[in-house]
Amino acid sequence: MDARFTPEQDEIRRTLRELLHKRCGPEELRAAVDTPAGHDPALWTALAEQLGLPGLALPEGYGGAGCSVTELALACEETGRALAPSPLLATAVLTAPLLLALGTDAQRADLLPRIASGALTAALAVPGPTLATALGLTRHDRRGQWAGGGRAGGVQARQADGGWQLYGQVDQVLDGHSARLLVIAAHTGGFARSRVLLFLVRGDAAGLTRVRQTALDATRPQARIQLRHVPAELLGGADADVLPALARLGDTAAACLAAEAVGAAGRVLERTVEYVGQREQFGRPVGSFQAVKHRLADVYVQVQAARSAAYYAAWATAQGERVGGLALAQALQALRGAAAEGIQSHGGIGFTWEHDVHLYFKRAAGDELLFGPVHRLRAHAADLAHVLEEAG
């Protein structure tokens, strides 16, 4: 592994950081999360047209840049620094790889160029609070019981009038209220012979109801979607191997999420160091006290270790290694520690709504609820590596 970044990778980071600094400051961030979409459409257009972020990891034949997961992870690190609310995670990280892996030639030719251009946003809808399980990050589920198990609940699919119809409800769909395309996991075949397939649903489909939910992390908007005999199109063929595809996606998504968390952790640490260098107590800067130095030094070590793990995980996905979950666990723990130390070091102001440090803590807590918790990510990584199996 060559740990050095290429000039092109450094340019992606530099250009994106400059754009977000200009277009996604504290005031712009708070204004964006209060909009119905939960993000600034003009910023998303700029990210797509100027930097090509939605198609960064898509093949050039579909209008993408043909880059690897590493470049996408570096982009996520920068959006994480700014806590930039955008459809990047839902569209480019969670949905586009499934369309590329499982879609028919016609589906890929129709959808992927529009995603690469930023014209089409998409969201992955997994029934129940089980996204981490569906992506194979916290435990094995070879039968897809997280999708409802063919029983009541979840989403059920049945053939009708020469096509497919979906019925059910999905909570906690990232950007599900604004995405123009939904990729929905649903059970088919009843309980006895049920299996999980993925379906494409237009955002304006008849019978589809979408409501934005109040989320702990306002920069990560979520929605509840309800389906009542909604017309849907099967993604790929009836023989599509959905569960392994979701597991492969999970490792890639975990690497990008780890990089995003590392970006947020690094930024909140920078802001904390800057603040303790300015705030005075007993006639001297708070940051000059040895105890404060030690605490922040510990956070720095955690963040740097998590950054290395995230970079390695992004590189390793192309080598067939499954280390994304472990990198994500380390990154989430680093973000939680950096955000908590940031609130502590900021004193009373750190608890106020007007200051931004609490947004980083909410990102840490919200990501653990969606993709963790940390101890389950680590336990599953240990199971995959057979760390705790008895010898003999």
Descriptive notes:
The protein is an alpha+beta fold and 392 residues long. 50% of the residues lie in helices and 16% in strands. It is built from 12 helices and 9 strands. Strands 1, 2, 3, 4, 5, 6 and 7 form a 7-stranded mixed β-sheet that branches. It has a two-stranded antiparallel sheet with strand order 8-9. Helix 1 packs parallel to helix 4 (69-82) and helix 10 (324-346) packs antiparallel against helix 11 (357-371). It is globular and about 80 Å long.
Would you spell out the secondary-structure blueprint of this structure?
Elements: H1 7-23, H2 26-33, H3 41-51, H4 69-82, H5 88-102, H6 105-117, E1 122-125, H7 131-134, E2 155-160, E3 163-174, E4 181-188, E5 195-202, E6 208-213, E7 222-234, H8 242-278, E8 280-281, E9 284-285, H9 290-316, H10 324-346, H11 357-371, H12 374-384
Parallel strand pairs: 1-4
Antiparallel strand pairs: 2-3, 3-7, 4-5, 5-7, 6-7, 8-9
Q: What does the average pLDDT come to? A: 90
The best one-word shape is globular
Element pattern in H and E: HHHHHHEHEEEEEEHEEHHHH
Note poorly predicted spans. none
Largest sheet entry: 7 strands, mixed
From the N-terminal CA to the C-terminal CA, the straight-line distance is 33 Å
Q: Which structural class matches the secondary elements?
A: alpha+beta
Q: In total, how many beta strands?
A: 9
Instruction: Give the C-alpha Rg.
Output: 21 Å
Helix content: 40-55%
Question: How many helix segments?
Answer: 12
Strand content: 15-25%
Please provide a brief summary of the model.
The protein is 50% helix and 16% strand.
